[in-house]
Amino acid sequence: MEVRNGETFQCSIGNLPQTLGERTKGMETPIQVVLRIRPMNQAELRRGEQSVLHCSGPRTLRVSPLGGGREVAFHFSMVLDGARTQDEVFQGSGVQRLVELALQGFSCTAFTFGQTGSGKTYTLTGPPPQGEGETVPSSLTGLMQRSFACLLDKIQHVGTPITLSASYLEIYNEQVRDLLSRGPHHYLPVRWNKTRGFYVEKLKAVKFGTFEEVMKLLLEGLRRRRSSAHNLNEVSSRSHALFTIHIQCPAVSPSRPKEQTFGKLCFVDLAGSEKVAATRSRGELMLEASNINRSLLALGHCISLLLDPRQKKNHIPYRDSKLTRLLADSLGGSGITLMVACVSPSAQSLPETLNTLRYASRAQRVTTRPMPKG
Ligand code: ADP
Ligand code: MG
Prior knowledge:
3-stranded antiparallel beta sheet, disordered C terminus, binds adenosine-5'-diphosphate, Kinesin-like protein, coiled coil, ATP binding
């Protein structure tokens, strides 16, 4: 399909990966988990809170509850403390490996997980712009902007012409909304078929070729996310946002068209993982909370089944939520998934921090990569 930059076409977000198991076998685990501790914020400093999290070595976190509770240790691919810069997080997270694999035709996903206020959005895109038209200083840009630059740089060194396009969607209350669509917004269905895997019907993908063009798409979607009607109650912390770059590499030899590859690089800003108190959860809030819990639980459930060697790998319940359907090919198929677990160092956040740490340490034990089925 011929599309010029800035034009749109319908795409599948869930292109099935090729049979890639062999190509990455033994090279890396399918889910890498990095922990990022944000610095204390002003409110925590004013309250005189103490940090209960301590790094001992580059991969180990010690949690020392105040008041003499038992110290617990957690191990991750990398632990990044509050003094780490955005660039150090980019270098340390291994996201550049995802960019490389996506260019080879794999489906790769980076997602941030943690309670609201723990630094998920900051890690992906940096601090929010201060005013209309303001941009984030380059030293503070997040994993997404840095990965875009890395991808475009790598492409310059590849001899063949590569087609890039981006799609951006939000899952709110189990409904999928296109963040790049200008018209009146309606919800799009998630479907499955043998050739495409799970995909969002009528989702727009916009072709781009430069850093400025892809940034324009990101900012357009972020603005649409912030200004939607239900955003009045900060829905962005209760919705999942998926920004996907589709990478189409042509066959080197026209006589062997099967060599064409379709890679995918997806960034997911997950909804806050905190439990919503039952007393606050009435009506719409209750529905929201149960949908968030449902999708994060479904994600955790799929991950723990992938972990279980006795589990039949073709029975992973990806269908349990829209989120797991759309992440099925990176979780269970091929490529790698990077999870950045975000936590606050404060004692007050400890119960939620422990939930995040347990969820994250379960995730990194996934050792198999079965292909997802519908
Ligand atoms: P979340 O997306 O998890 O709800 P945010 O990314 O919005 O959380 O972060 C909450 C606040 O903390 C924001 O004001 C953000 O700019 C700030 N923040 C988060 N992480 C860091 C960090 N590593 N360094 C400085 N400020 C941070
Ligand atoms: Mg956020």
